[in-house]
Known about the structure:
This protein starts with a strand and ends with a helix. It is of the alpha/beta class. Strand 4 and strand 5 form a beta hairpin. The radius of gyration is 18 Å and the shape is globular. It has helices at about 45-50, 75-80, 95-110, 110-125, 140-155, 170-185, 195-200, 220-225, 225-240, and strands spanning about 5-15, 20-30, 35, 60-65, 65-70, 80-85, 160, 190, 205-210, 215-220. The strands form two sheets. It has a six-stranded mixed beta sheet with strand order 6-7-8-3-9-10, with helices on both faces. A four-stranded antiparallel beta sheet has the order 2-1-4-5, covered by helices on one side. It has a domain at about 1-80 and about 190-240: P-loop containing nucleotide triphosphate hydrolases (Rossmann fold), CATH 3.40.50.300. The structure holds adenosine-5'-diphosphate and magnesium ion. Magnesium ion binds near residues 44, 45 and 162. Magnesium ion binds near residues 44, 45, 87 and 162.
Amino acid sequence: xxxxxxxxxxxxxxxxxxxxxxxxxxxxxxxxxxxxxxxxxxxxxxxxxxxxxxxxxxxxxxxxxxxxxxxxxxxxxxxxxxxxxxxxxxxxxxxxxxxxxxxxxxxxxxxxxxxxxxxxxxxxxxxxxxxxxxxxxxxxxxxxxxxxxxxxxxxxxxxxxxxxxxxxxxxxxxxxxxxxxxxxxxxxxxxxxxxxxxxxxxxxxxxxxxxxxxxxxxxxxxxxxxxxxxxxxxxxxxxxxx
Length: 242
Ligand SMILES: Nc1ncnc2c1ncn2[C@@H]1O[C@H](COP(=O)(O)OP(=O)(O)O)[C@@H](O)[C@H]1O
Ligand SMILES: [Mg+2]
């Protein structure tokens, strides 16, 4: 059996004639942890939506295990083992943390197992003390963790995380990187991230997306030393900060 879990070929997504994703050939092996970086508007979130089936490609193919994803609905893709945390939060603010997790576990495991799975995830994200807290009462960083928990509750084989540390403090982002590494022990993970310190801490392979296309791939060190990447992405961010 091939150890390639996800593969896209010539993947294209156009919005009104403009290409948000422009011919992406992407390969991910089982068990990998990969960071997807690139400037705002590079097409990272659109790429995730194509993988999750919430957007349809204009052209190209996506294979997840032995499945042709371009033919499946989002709920079928989720059932096949893909879990995604979108950039825009999808938690139920008025419901307690435990119920959010329960709902997610229920979709994948059914009523009988949902409680056990939700409890395990509560423990894993160290949120037992927040069990009965409505999600809307939590800090922004903690809400992001609940969202990651909801993905975990479905026990996916492939997990896509879109900017999981957005709005987090440095310390929270560090803890999130540790959680992502823990998750990667049992699942293949792609994470979109802006924080270079987070990316370095993950020690993952990096794919750089620019204007909808793959600009470079490699280790964080290789990416950092790549003059084109420096100029287009890292350099620009340094200037913007400085
Ligand atoms: N639903 C949409 N309709 C039209 N244009 C879109 C839509 N979603 C994204 N885009 C455009 O596609 C490009 C890539 O966006 P996005 O995938 O969100 O980038 P990133 O996540 O890398 O910041 C941007 O130019 C954005 O404006
Ligand atoms: Mg995005």
